[in-house]
Each structure stands twice: as structure tokens, then as C-alpha cells.
Amino acid sequence: MRTLIAIVVALFCLAADAGAQVDCRAAPCTLREAADAAGVYVGSAASDSLIASDPDYGPALAREMNSVTHEVHLKWDATHPAPGVYTFDAADALVNFAETHGMRVRGHTLIWEQFLLDATPAYVTDITDADELRALMTEHIQTVVGRYRGRVETWDVVNEPLETGGTGLYQNVFYELLGPGYIAEALRIAHEADPDAHLIINDVLVSNDGPKFAALLQLAADLLAAGAPLHGVGIQGHFFLAPIPEQLQANIEKLVALGLSVEITELDILLRGPGDRAERLARQRADYRGVVGACMAVAGCRGVTTWGFTDRYTWIDSFLGPDFDPLLLDESYVAKPAYD
Ligand code: 9MR
Asked: What is the mean pLDDT of the segment spanning 90-118?
């Protein structure tokens, strides 16, 4: 009898422990623990090759994040570099890592074609026939989404559908040959390939109340009115200029009012402006707080993904130069003020 009671007590304690929640106000916790406790995603762009080459990278990623996004290896030029040729080793490696560590995967991205910076190979942009492009787009989305059916939770189906500095649809090869309906078509193909996947469009420079946000809101409303399977919108959040727009929360609310989810998908905030490093770090901290606070204030905002997590590896180094240190951990994986 005593043994039976001991077993029952032990089982009760185990169950109670499994259900215990971290209280991050009572004691320091990781970002991931804080996000788990709040029921939101905190994620990062990441690379399988850095997991392999830097022994500190993978453990820090899994410790701090409950979500991950391939920075380059799910893009068209990586998965489908030539007609009929698919390469998934690098993409698979990060998906496997995420599954091993219980992390969500955001699939970035199926369609992204722009003049300056994109991921679409020339064999696609050189196409001049609409039927040929439609068939190729269909094959690409079916193959990539189908491969990760049930494993990639969210897809950035079309990345940056709007002109970077304008309000019209970006006049890329998909728009030119298939017309503005290419976005709804891409969403439908992705939905067929994985009916449970969360499908979003994702754009940049849409955090203030300028005309580009109005265009994004209209695009989302038009897609819903057309019956397209659009479930959410990503606000990238590459912030080059201070301060963080005060309208961010209102923009999130307007998208949520359409019945869509929102997530901040590519956050990085440059160290910039006057003052010494400590002052700039404090400003960066306030700006991170502003963005995360805007998301957390709206129930339909699912979480925040930063575009990298350590200043050791950031695309800003090659885009703008070194020392902008836009992320949450420094080059030695030590938490910066913004981490709080
Ligand atoms: O950070 C990414 C960089 O390493 C790649 O070379 C580049 C092209 O694939 O894409 C960068 O990520 C972009 C993202 O996919 C879409 N929004 C803008 C990001 C920064 O350019």
C-alpha cells in the first residue's frame, strides 16, 4: 500500500511539474520561455550551415527561439535552381533541427521576384509565355509545399508583392505575364498542397500610416473578397530609421480587423543616431520594446521573428556595412539591452 501511495504521489508531482509555467517577472528567463509563457512565437531567421560551422549557434538558437525561418534555403533559387532540379538538403537540415528542438518553421518564401534583391533564377524571369510560367509556378509551389506538408506551419507565399517604395503591385514577371491575380493563384496552389498551412503575404515599409500600408490593407481585403485562402499578413520590420512608427499597433489592428493574423517577420533595428554606444543601445532597446509591445497589445498578432539573433551574423553587414549591430545578442552571444 505504501508503495502504491509513493507511486501515486510521484506521478502527481511529475504531472504538476510538466504543467509548471515559467514566471519571467519573478526570475530571469530566456526569450523562448517568455514567449512560451505568453503563448506567442519568438523566432529568428537562421541557417543550417551556421548550425554546422559554429558550435555556439545552434544551442543559442534553440535556447532562445520557439520558431525558425530559413534565411535563404527555402527560396526558389535554393530549392529549384534549374528546371526540373530540386535541392532540399539545406532546407531539410533546418526543418529537422526545428523538429528536434520543438520549434515552429515559417516557410520563407515561395514567390519573391524583384529587380534589386530577390531569389528568382533567370530561367524563371526569362519566361515570356503565360502558360509556361503558370505551369512552372504551380509545379514549384506544389513540390515545395507538398514536401513539407504538416511540417512548415506558415508560408510567406508571396514576399514583397508591392513596389518597394511605391503602392502598386511590383511589376515582376509573375505580374507581367499572369496579371494581378497571380497572388490569389499562388495562395490557392499552396492551400491545395497543404490545406492546414497558414498562408500569408509579407511586405516591408508598412509600419507607418503611409500610402504603402494603405495599399497592403487594400490588397489583403481584395484577396479575401476574391475568396483567396489568405490567413495572415507579415510586417517585415527592417527598421533603418528612428524612431519606430507609432502607428505600428494601429496597422496591426487594421489587418486583424479584416479577420487576418499578423506577425512581425523580419525584425532588425540598427544601432544608430547620436550619442555613445550605451545611449544607442538604450535607444535600440526602446525600439525593440516598441515593436514587441505593439504586437503583444493585439490578440491577433502571433509573434515576432528577428532577422538573425546574434550580431555575429547579420545581412546588414554586407548590405550597409559593419557595426550597425541590429540584433538581440552581441557577437559573443551575450544578451544586449534590447533582449530585455
Ligand atoms: O538576409 C537575406 C540575405 O542573406 C540574402 O542574400 C537575400 C537574398 O536571398 O535575402 C535576405 O533576406 C531578405 C528576405 O528574404 C526578404 N526581405 C528582405 C530580407 C533582407 O534583404
From this structure: 96
Confidence category of residue 99, pLDDT binned at 50, 70, 90: very high
Cell of 5: 501511495
Overall pTM surpassing 0.90 (yes/no): yes
Centre a 10 Å sphere on the Cβ of residue 129 and count the other Cβ atoms it contains.
9
Encode 109-166 in three state secondary structure.
EEECCCCCCCCCCHHHHCCCCHHHHHHHHHHHHHHHHHHCCCCCCEEEEEECCECCCC
Residue nearest to atom 12 of ligand 1 (CA): 71
Q: Whose CA is nearest to atom 13 of ligand 1?
A: 71
Ligand 1 centroid to Cα of residue 312, in Å, is 16
Q: Is 266 in the pocket of ligand 1 (CB under 6 A)?
A: yes
Quickly state the pLDDT bin for 77 (edges 50, 70, 90): very high
Which residue has the CA at smallest separation from atom 3 of ligand 1? 315
Distance 17 CA to ligand 1 centre (A): 41
pLDDT of residue 328: 98
- Give the catalytic positions in this structure: 160, 266
Any ligand 1 atom below 6 A from CB of 156:
no
For residue 22, give every residue at least 6 positions away whose Cβ sits within 8 Å of its Cβ, in sequence order, or none.
Answer: 29, 33, 34, 36, 37
